[in-house]
Predict the 3D structure of the following.
Amino acid sequence: MGLPLVGGANEMIARRRFLQAAASSVAVTAVGSQLTTAAHAAGVDPEGTLRDLGPASVASPLGNGEFVGNVLYMGSRGLSPNVVGAWDLGTDKISKHYEIPTGVGIWAMCKVGTDVYVGTHAPSDLYKIDTVAGTVTKLASYPDEFIWTIASAPDGVIYMGTSQPGRVLEYNPATGVSRDLGEPAPGESYVRSIQADATHVYAGVGSNAHLIAINRTTGEKRELLPASLADRDWVSSMASSDTHIAGGVLSLAELLVVEKANPANHRIVKATAPGEKYIVAVLIHDGWVYFAGRPSGTIYRYHLATEKLEVLGVPFFEAATSRILEFEGRIYGLQDTGVFVYDPATSQLEYFSHVQRGFRAAPEAPMSVHSDGSWVYVGGKSGADLHELSTAKVTRLPIAGEPKTMLTVDGTTYLGIYTQAALYSHHIGEPEAKLLFRTGHNQDRPRDLAYDKRTGLIVMSTQPEPGHPNGALNVYNPGSGKVDTYRPIVERQTVLSLTASHGVAYLGTSTQEGLGAPPVTSTARLAAFDLSSRTLLWEIEPLPGIAAYTGVKHTPFAIYALTNTGVLVEYDLARRKVTRTLKVNNRGGDLVIAGFTAYTSDVDAVYRIDLLPLRSRKIVTGLASDWFGGGSKLNIDPSERWLYGIKGRNLVQVAISPYR
């Protein structure tokens, strides 16, 4: 199915139809106004009325941990404030919470004696927990976006890996002085793992993998990554012993083991679970290297002397492990959903809920919102909270990943899940979502979903893994279960937003490819993809210098796209050109359309956009929305009577009257 014909009589017919639609809309608007007036008389809320539905998503995801004595200190991520909960193994309870007042998460923790050091991100702050005195002290702040990783040397000096760019920082607790050791691999965006011994700091780097040894005295740098791994993406997790460094290499699920005294003596161990891509946590203990794989959630161990690889089990299917620790001979693994414990003496693998032991659950920064008309799904870490509108009941839908985008078609809700660029389906009443497919093709982050009635196809756009080029378009047939992936779809860009109509998917792109990779194109595009012929019909650059189109929707005769700078672009399908633009706000967000009325939001306000006269106004202010990642999400109820978003971290319902 192609686009409407243009030129001559065909264009006149198309324009006449557009004007007829506009006239019809005026009539509908008049009727809608009468209906709205009657509805108001009946007690229906006027447009912009906001109803608070309570915390949007309540969770307790773990980012890292550290043992001091028989107490496991576990750091949260995504809470406000984040906390470090102290799990006393003697009493089997969380004995205390230490609040960390800044940052959106705790990825980094280490210890020196009885002190626990905590690194946050956004902003990057360093804290010390004195576990004897029970105090929390902020020690330093850094301009970097993330403190990803932290480790202590034997003399108590702290080393941190940051982004962006990827730097190594030193903090000396004895003097309180920080030192910048620079970029171990200049030009790379991330130092994702770090270890330190008496003489060297070891930095695991991405988006292009490096393993750099830095002499702590001279600053001399040496590459330890074997040439055979030079084309890999990350060294993202690491552990150290007196004799070896072990690191997880992405994205082919490889464990690299390097002898410190002779780096040429190295071994590469491939994780064996089907579809395994990532090594996400590593520990060297008692002659074994313990490590966790993803997406399978499998726990492995590798014997340094015999080179034997063992699969220990799957504590929680597809869960990511943020840290592996040892205490009194047993192996502890921290995950979003709890803590697994492996006993090498008995080969027994157990799982414990940190929440059941008293770890604080709190509203997290949500990632997505979607209404099927009766329920509202709010995506967060490791699942979604489901809000039943008629009863205010909230239930948790566990998913191994993060729901980034959702869509309901004929009673089935589809969820695009990070990190595997996976598509799941769910029916209300089912305790679990069903995995339909993982995209593959070096994709990891779903960006948008759309449904085309004519073909019955579902379209999902995805962003590539960090450092990789070219996003993809995934076309899924619910009837046959077949999925086709097109990569690239728009060369050297990612499709960030999309809509579908009459057999054509309309795409809004971003110049950002995999995170950490500098854009190679300067301007985002709009494009059209024929779902029958599977061909790209056209692509254009409507406005110069635009980084992304954050929302794309359609009416019968035009495509509307919102830029990252808050400009709405109208693309006339009949004339195949941009006809009008409107400055709505200063940043992009989701775009929804009901009839000839559109709505969007930024972090503080909701805007109504009347498309025929092309004008906008605020209908809600003061939201202070705390979306994870700083985006701005908005969803429309199928009845077209409400919008759903968040205020702070609470789910809110906004009354709308699009036909008035």
Confidence is low (pLDDT under 50) at residues 1-42.
